[in-house]
Amino acid sequence: CVSAARRYAISGRDHTGKSTICHAVTARLRSQGVDADMVDEQSRRSVALAEGRRGVSTQLDLFARTVVVELEVARSSAVVVCDRSLVDILAYTDLLPPDSDPSDLAMRRAMDAFADHYLATYAAIFLPAWSLESVEDDPLRAPVRHLQDDLAAHIERRLAPYADRVVRLHTQATAVDDVAAHILADLSGQRGL
Questions:
Q1: Are 67 and 122 in contact (CB under 8 A)?
Q2: Which residues contact 8 (CB under 8 A, 6 or more apart)?
Q3: Continuous segment of H or E residues that includes residue 174
Q4: pLDDT at residue 3 above 60?
Q5: In terms of DSSP H, where are the helices of 119-169?
Q6: What is the pLDDT of residue 170?
Q7: What pTM does this model have?
Q8: Disulfide-capable partner of 26 in 35, 38, 66, 99 (CB 3.0 to 4.6 Å)?
Q9: Percentage of the chain with pLDDT > 70?
Q10: DSSP letter at 170?
Q11: From the CB of residue 135, how many other CB atoms can be counted at a distance below 10 Å?
């Protein structure tokens, strides 16, 4: 068992409001008496990405940070709401040029092998079906804006083995309500209420 905490992730293409949903859902759960905390998207903290370095080693760093932070938060909270998941990092890694460096190929294989087990430990992974207007001056997202359709396809492919954990969000206006209701129902089922 990775942790007694239940982990839920909001994943998917850029500019769908994932961070906003995560913050609002975490607040909603707390207002309902749930011991909930949130894990921010780790790419926002990446010096390598801020400097424009987007190789496999940068993706491995994000991958490791994501796991470490999720597990740290899970030690002190019953519910963890994650802004993105390992599937997003793997999908971005899929979009990198093919490896000529044997160590890059080995890192990709290691991430894949670990993720095969770790992705199954999320209680649910929510996927928004909409896209919002992108922010033109977002230096982190601007270099990958053109990759979003491909990213979404890779996320779908990567999540196929975990289809029982994927929850599709169809309406932006009700997304917070839908995610919070799903988590509360899941928790009720876990507690046998």
A1: no
A2: 79, 80, 81, 82, 122, 123, 124, 125, 126, 179, 183
A3: none
A4: no
A5: 148-159
A6: 96
A7: 0.89
A8: 38
A9: 90
A10: -
A11: 13
Hey, what are 41's tokens? 């998207």
User: To which H or E segment does residue 37 belong?
Assistant: strand 36-39
Two tokens, residue 57: 């080693």
Distances from the Cα of 133 to the Cα of 9, 15, 112, angstroms: 22, 7, 32
**Residue whose C-alpha is closest to residue 9's, from 129, 148, 185, 165:** 165
Structure confidence at residue 51 (pLDDT): 83
Helix (H) or strand (E) holding 48: helix 47-50
Q: Tell me the pLDDT band of 142, cut-offs 50, 70 and 90.
A: low
| Structure tokens, 58 | 């940068």
Q: Quote the pLDDT of residue 192.
A: 46
Give the residue from 82, 95, 70, 76 showing the smallest Cα distance to 125.
82
Report the DSSP beta bridge partners of residue 19.
none
Rounded mean pLDDT of the chain? 89
Looking at residue 188, its pLDDT comes to 92
